Amino acid sequence: MLKPTFSELIKTSIRSILRNKGRTILTSLGIIIGVTSVILLTAIGNGLKLYIANQFESLGSNLIYVMPGKMFSESGGFSSSSGAGFLSTSFDQKDVQKLKRNLKEAGAIIPAIELSGKAKYRNREEEITIVAASYEYGKVSNTTPKEGKGTWFTKEGESKNASVAVLGSQIAEELFKNENPLNKTIIVNSKNIKVIGVAEKKGGSIGGGHIDKAIYVPLQTGFDFAGNTKIQSILIQAKSKDQIEDLKKEAEKIMLEKFDKDSFSVIDQSQILSSINAVLGTLTIALSGIAAISLLVGGIGIMNIMLVTVTERTREIGLRKAVGATPN
């Protein structure tokens, strides 16, 4: 018997596939779904990591956060006791001044608080996050309005307890629609506030609320809203990345003079990102493992079809061998 050419083998394979279209489609579908699931879930996990990293960069660079509560456990993951510490610990202006006196190498030291509230303009009312901080916050957090979008509040305005605010882009759009919000007055938690600027659209979230739905006010105005002078967090900006570790150690040493080590945390952006990425990495692996099951099922399906196909063609194979066909 003449040895079949490559083209003849291809034609025979195609004829066999066409004879069993349903079987071929179902088998291929199992593999396609399995491979697509693994690739898609892995891509989503990596994309989410990149998105979060970009969000942190948009919040400012070389930042150190002094926060109430123990944020991380000894293993590096998020601590389960951070919530309790957050509720039981708060800072005050004396803590801020002490850090400023001792961390002269820092670019800026900024006290901040966050509150929930409602903003109203005419007949429109929206839920908002109120971020109250000292005047340097705009520059440090990349929130300063661009040209033509107003200004950030100044040191003089802060010292005079000015009732002014910079609006996030989304809240400005929802409250004012097509109107220019600059120099307009809105009502925030029953207090009249003058709009002096609109921040650029950033996306992401802050303190559980959307960044673009936040309004930014001077620290003293925030104290008025809160009804106390407690400070929730202190931001320290290093002048360069090389300073971060030294500033963290010094800040922690200063805070330990007043607070227990488990009642506060001094962390930088890289620590937060590492912990989030570790969680996302574990989640991605778990989801990829689940997706791989469908790939395994597809593979078993192919093996099953191959066995069925060989069984169905036993007579044909025997006939071919009888007339001189060989495996090679």
Q: Could you outline the blueprint of secondary structure elements for this entry?
A:
Layout: H1 6-19, H2 21-58, E1 63-68, H3 82-88, H4 93-102, E2 108-121, E3 124-133, H5 137-140, H6 155-159, E4 164-167, H7 169-176, E5 185-188, E6 191-198, E7 205-206, E8 209-210, E9 214-218, H8 219-226, E10 233-237, H9 244-256, E11 264-268, H10 269-312, H11 314-322
Parallel strand pairs: 3-9, 4-6
Antiparallel strand pairs: 1-10, 1-11, 2-3, 2-5, 2-10, 4-9, 5-6, 7-8
Helix pairs in contact: 2-10, 4-9
Describe this structure as you would to a colleague.
By secondary structure, the chain is of the alpha+beta class. It has two domains: 6-56 and 278-323; 90-258, no CATH class. It has helices at 6-19, 21-58, 82-88, 93-102, 137-140, 155-159, 169-176, 219-226, 244-256, 269-312, 314-322; strands at 63-68, 108-121, 124-133, 164-167, 185-188, 191-198, 205-206, 209-210, 214-218, 233-237, 264-268. The strands form two sheets. The chain has a six-stranded mixed barrel. It has a two-stranded antiparallel ribbon with strand order 7-8. A hairpin with a 2-residue loop joins strand 2 (108-121) and strand 3. The relative contact order is 0.19. Mean pLDDT is 82; it is low at 82-86. One of its GO terms (cellular component) is plasma membrane. The chain crosses the membrane at residues 25-45, 278-311. This is ABC transporter permease. One of its GO terms (molecular function) is transmembrane transporter activity.
Domains counted in the coordinates: how many? Answer: 2
Low-confidence stretches: 82-86
Structure class? alpha+beta
> Measured on Cα atoms, how large is the radius of gyration?
31 Å
SS element count, helices: 11
Largest sheet: 6 strands, mixed, barrel
Transmembrane segments: 25-45, 278-311
Family: Belongs to the ABC-4 integral membrane protein family.
Protein name: ABC transporter permease
Subcellular location: Cell membrane
